[in-house]
Amino acid sequence: QVQLVESGGGLVQPGGSLRLSCAASGRIFSITVMGWYRQAPGKQRELVAGITTDGSTTYADSVKGRFTISRDNAKNTVYLQMNSLKPEDTAVYYCSAVYNSDPATPFGAWGQGTQVTVSS
Question: If you average pLDDT over residues 62-82, what whole number do you get?
Fold first, then answer.
């Protein structure tokens, strides 16, 4: 079983920065996609950013230019650098991954989430 563990959340002031990390562990042959989702109070979970093994990225319009996703394939770790944070970014952030435990079997996984609160 693959587990995803997020870290780096916390309380920051508007305009501040945080860097989230997510490390995957367990039996992993490869990870095709890793990404970050978030869920704010009263809202559905939404994709924040995603990254493929080759480095292709996608971002929600609301975070473009402020957030940067990256990954270290050797460590099976994905990062989310969040700059110029706004109160609207307040949410629980979840790491996700699409992985293979062997070359032929894909699976999906979710982390437990880390709270990001942007407030003065």
Answer: 94
